[in-house]
User: Which sequence fits this backbone?
């Protein structure tokens, strides 16, 4: 939700990719999402909580991602 992650999300959104952001800080990610949508009104960006240091968080993320019923074409 900052630096290279935010920029990667922005560039993918510019190219029409439906982006799922896995983030630790939902508030910061929401701000990044709003900024990108301001630049790219057609951007499709989902935000899911993810803490890679916690296996339970990773499992919750996977369950939440599966519930979106989206294909996984690119993993960054």
Assistant:
């Amino acid at each position: 939700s900052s630096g290279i992650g935010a920029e990667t999300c922005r560039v993918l959104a510019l190219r029409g990719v439906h982006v799922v952001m896995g983030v630790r800080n939902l508030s910061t990610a929401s701000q990044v999402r709003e900024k990108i949508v301001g630049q790219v009104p057609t951007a499709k960006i989902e935000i899911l909580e993810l803490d890679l240091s916690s296996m339970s968080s990773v499992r919750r993320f996977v369950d939440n991602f599966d519930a979106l019923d989206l294909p996984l074409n690119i993993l960054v």
